[in-house]
Every structure is written in C-alpha cells, then in structure tokens.
Amino acid sequence: MGVKTDLTDALRSAIKEKDDTSKNAIRLALSAIKLAETEKCIEKNPELDDVKIFSILQKEIKIREETIAEAVKADREGMVEPLKNEIKVIEGFLPPRLTDDELTEEINNVISNSNATTIKHMGMVMKTIIENTQGRASNDRISKIVRNLLSPK
Description:
mainly alpha; Arc Repressor Mutant, subunit A; single chain; globular
C-alpha cells in the first residue's frame, strides 16, 4: 500500500526526529485508517486502497478545521497553531488539490457525458467525480459544485 506505507515510514522518522506535531498527526491518521480497516474486516481483503485512504485523510483535515473554528469561537488561540501544523503534515500525504476551475471543468465533463440534468442525478455524478479525482478534492467541495451545476437556475 503506497500511502499507508508512506505514513508508517513518516511516523518512524517523526519519532526519531522527536517531531511531536508530525508524530501526533500521523498517529491519528493511521489510527483512523486502522479503524476503517477493522470495520471492513468482514470482507476478504480489509486493506484500503489509496483513494479510500485519501478520503480518510481529508476527513482528518476536516475534523481539525472544525476544531480550529471551535477554538477560535471559544477564544482558545493556543490550540489553533498546532492544529494548523497538523493539517499541513496530513496535506503532505494527499495528492495536489484541484483548483475550483479544474474541478468545475471535470464535473461539467461528467455531467455532459452522463446526461445528468437534475439534482436527482447528483449521486451518480458524485460517485463518478470522486473516483475520477482520487483524493484531489474533498467531497464537500465536489458536492457544492455539483449541487450548483445541477440546481435549477
């Protein structure tokens, strides 16, 4: 497994270098991956592919972004910087993100190829886009753009 192996190797390096921020972020990401594999354990091959691991990493980033927002609301600025550093560490394992223009173009291609015309087709479009982008865009971003493109004007 490519990304999982990279995470494990990076964890070893972070432990050797005594980089607590990287160590904590990578451990939590590996823990989330292990949990997902455990939940999938009833299948013959519980190993997750890179696309699913990218999805888990994006969820970890989203959790940290939400925690940052809550910390700012609660006036706990001391929590913000370590969380931002953890986000940077996790983003290092994701493929380069698509710009909004690139993502919109990709979604328009899928919509035209699948003849999707209404919001009822959103699930089909989402499934195809998520497979095509392979971790280069978060599901939230994809969902917002698909919803805007398929909603009646």
